[in-house]
Write a structure and sequence with these properties.
Blueprint: E1 2-6, E2 13-20, H1 26-32, E3 38-42, E4 45-50, E5 55-61, E6 64-70, H2 75-84
Antiparallel strand pairs: 1-2, 2-6, 3-4, 4-5, 5-6
């Protein structure tokens, strides 16, 4: 699943891609093997980030792999978003 958000004024945007852990496409696995990832901790959650022309972050939690990208947000901002993600409620709890 992929989703993109853009601010009303269009100055900020972020895209998220989500997969079951282990089911992410090989392109992600190749990027994750590079050494240039830093760890930022937000509220006890470690988020891997890297900056460049496109800021990227990834997190694994609750059997879910999430990859975030932005050309306008900082690594710290992506880490905050990633650490704040919560699993969707199950159908039985709705």
């Amino acid at each position: 699943m992929s989703i993109s958000f853009r601010s009303d004024d269009g100055h900020e945007s972020v895209s998220l891609s989500q997969y079951a852990v282990g089911d992410q496409p090989d392109q992600y696995n190749l990027m994750l093997k590079r050494d240039n990832w830093q760890t930022i901790n937000r509220n006890g959650t470690d988020v891997k980030v890297r900056s460049g022309s496109q800021t990227q972050a990834h997190i694994e939690r609750d059997e879910t792999f999430v990859f975030l990208t932005s050309e306008t947000l900082t690594a710290e901002q992506l880490a905050t978003i990633a650490a704040g993600l919560k699993p969707a409620p199950t159908a039985s709890s709705v």
